[in-house]
Amino acid sequence: MLEPDGGQPQPPRLAWTSTPPSALDDEGYRAAIGQCVDAILRMHLGERLVNKIFGRNLQSHAAGLIVVMHHEALLGLGPRPTLRAIQQEMGHARTLAGFVALLRAAGFLAVEPVPHDGRSAYLVPLPPLIDGLRQWLSHHLHCAKTVGLVPQRSVDRLIADEVLYRRFLGLSRGLLARTRRVMTGDGAWAWFDRFDCGDRIALILLHAHHAATTGGRGPRWFDVETRDMAARLGVSHSHVRSVLNRAEVAGLVEQDRRLHRIALTDRFLAESWAWFATFWGWIADLARETEAAGMSELSISSPRNRDIGT
Known about the structure:
This protein has 310 residues and is mainly alpha-helical.
C-alpha cells in the first residue's frame, strides 16, 4: 500500500490490530505459541556463532532470500541468487557484501562463477543454511496446524515429500517479503526485531509469561535472569538490559527492579498475538498454494536445472 503522495510502500496491516482479552487465553494460541517459542529458541540458545551471524533481521532476511531464490531457480521460476540481486532487492549494499563474505567463511555459503561475467558469482546455499530456513518454516507450519489453519495431513505431506517441500521453499518469497515489510512497522514484534537478537529476547519473555502462574487480576510477573539470557544468546548483559529498559519506555513491559521481575503489557501481548496469527495465516496460504501446484507430480531435475547445486 502506497502513501497518498506516492511515497514508499507501507507495512501491510496485520489481520488483527486489536485483540479481545478472550483471544489471549485461547488454548490453541497458547499451545501454538508454546511450540513456537520452544522450537525457535532451540535453534538459537547456546548457538553463539548462529546468533552472531544471524542476530540482526537484515542478515536473517538476506539469508532467507538467498535460499528462496536458489529454490526458485531449481524450479525454473527465477534466476539464481547473486550478491547484486540480493542488494538490489534489499539495499544495504556494503553491509550485505560483508555478510555474504561472512557466510562463506563460516561454511554456510559457496559461490560459483557466472558464465561470461567475471564480476558476478552465483550464491549457493550450503545444507546448514538451507536447513536453518527449513526448520524455521517447519516450526511455524506446525504452529499453523495447532491453531487450526492447516490440516495435519497437509503438514505431514509437506514435511515428508522432499520435492513438495522444495516447492514450498521456492514459493515462499512473497511470505518473506511481507514479513520484511511488517518488520519495518511499529508493532511490538517489529519493535523488538530491530535489535540484535531482539526477536529471541521477545520469545524468551513470551515463554516466561505463559509459564508463569497468576494470582488473579493484574500483571503476570515472572523472574528474569538477564545475565543468563545474555549468555544463552551470546550477547552482552548490557545489551539485554538496554533492550528491556527501552521496551519499558515503549510501553511493552513493566519492570519491578527491586524483585528483578518483569510483566508483559496488554499491548505487547495483543500485538504479538496479532503478528503470529497473521504470520501463521500466511504460512497456511503458502501450504495451500504449494499443494495446489501439485509439486509431487513435477520434477525439479529438468536439464536447465541440473547444474544448480542442491
